[in-house]
Amino acid sequence: MKAATAIVFLLVFSTAASAQNPDPNKWMCRNLADSGGFTYQGESIFGTVACRPVAQAVPKTQEVATTAAPAPAAQPQPVSAPVQPAVSAPAASSDQTQATIYFYRPRRFQGSALKPSVFVDDARVGNLHNGDSIKFPLAPGDHRIYSTDKSTGLDLDAKPGETYYVRVDIQVGFWKGHGGVTLVDPQEGKYEVAQAAHQGADGNQ
C-alpha cells in the first residue's frame, strides 16, 4: 500500500514539475507578481507564471516563381541577293564578222557593150555593165577572185571587217574581150566606186 502511494506521489510530482516549466516554444509566459497575481483571458497558470499559448506558424509551401523564359529573338533571315539576269554579249554585226568586197568597172569606151561576169570561188556574183559596181559580203578566209578569164584571177585572204576593192578592166582577146581583175588601194577604190553606179549582188541596179 505504501508502495502504491509512493508511485502515485511521484507521478503527481513529475506532472507538477513539468507543469511548472512550460515549453518556451509553445508558451509565452510572464511573472504573476508583475500584475499583482491578476491573470488575463486566455492565460494559464504554471506555478508563479501566467502563460499564453504561442501560435504555431503553419509552414507554407514554398512557391517557386516561375518566370517565363523570354522567347528567343527572331534570327534575321539571310536575304539572298536578287538574281541578276544573264546578259549575253551583243552579237557581232555582219560588218564585224565578215569582209566586204566591191567589184567595179570604170566607165570607158573600150568594150562598153560587154558585160563580164565576176566570180568568188567559182560562184558567180553578177555581171558588170560599163560604169557599174557590185557590193558583196565575203566570209573571212582565202578566196579566188576572177572575171571571165579565170587565169587572170587573184587570191584574196579576207579579214573580218575589212573592205576590198577589185577593179574589172576589159582586156581585148583574140576572139573577144574579157574581164581582168585587179586589187586596188582602198582609198583609190573607194573613190572610183563612188563614181560608178551601184547594183546589188544579183546584178540589179
Which key phrases capture this entry?
single chain; 205 residues; alpha+beta; Immunoglobulin-like; 5-stranded mixed sheet; 4-stranded antiparallel sheet
Percent of residues in helices: 10-25%
**Which blocks of ≥5 consecutive residues have pLDDT under 50?**
6-19, 86-92
Cα separation of the termini: 169 Å
Spatial shape: rod-shaped
Number of domains: 2
The secondary structure category is: alpha+beta
Strand order of the largest sheet: 11-10-4-7-12
Estimate what percentage of residues fall within beta strands. Answer: 25-35%
- CATH secondary-structure class of the largest domain: Mainly Beta
Overall radius of gyration: 67 Å
Total strands: 12
Largest β sheet strand count, sense and barrel closure:
5 strands, mixed
CATH topology type of the largest domain? Immunoglobulin-like
Would you list the SSEs in sequence order as H and E? Answer: HEEEHEEEEEEEEHE
Question: What features would you describe in this structure?
Answer:
With 205 residues, this protein is an alpha+beta fold. The chain has two domains: 2-53, no CATH class; 95-199, Immunoglobulin-like, CATH 2.60.40. Helices cover 16% and strands 33% of the residues. The protein is built from three helices and twelve strands. The protein has helices at residues 2-20, 94-97, 186-195, and strands at 27-31, 44-46, 49-53, 99-104, 117-120, 123-127, 132-138, 141-146, 154-158, 163-172, 177-184, 197-199. The chain has a five-stranded mixed β-sheet with strand order 11-10-4-7-12. The longest helix is centred in the N-terminal third of the chain and has 19 residues, at 2-20.
